[in-house]
Write a structure and sequence with these properties.
Blueprint: H1 2-7, H2 23-30, H3 33-46, H4 51-79
Length: 81
């Protein structure tokens, strides 16, 4: 599981522009949480437009937190029975 999470930044716009990626990877790279967060941070640091990039980053972050909390609750309940 850790490998999958660690792989997400490599398949995002964090290191290279998405349009330079192979076509089969571009769709995944555009629609994942790391790309949204990296684009929002890059826009705020470089003074670019961030209004359209912040809300997807916040939404992805809240979704990841909610999913992690739900999974943690289920695993904790299972192990403490």
């Amino acid at each position: 599981m850790t490998f999958l999470v660690a792989f997400l930044p490599y398949a995002s716009s964090a290191f290279v522009p998405i349009h330079t990626m192979p076509s089969w990877l571009q769709g995944f790279a555009r629609n994942q949480p790391v790309t949204a967060v990296v684009d929002a941070i890059r826009g705020s640091l470089l003074g670019g437009p961030i209004a359209s990039k912040v809300w997807p980053a916040v939404a992805w972050s809240l979704a990841v937190i909610a999913a992690s909390a739900a999974l943690a609750r289920v695993l904790f309940a299972r192990r403490t029975r």
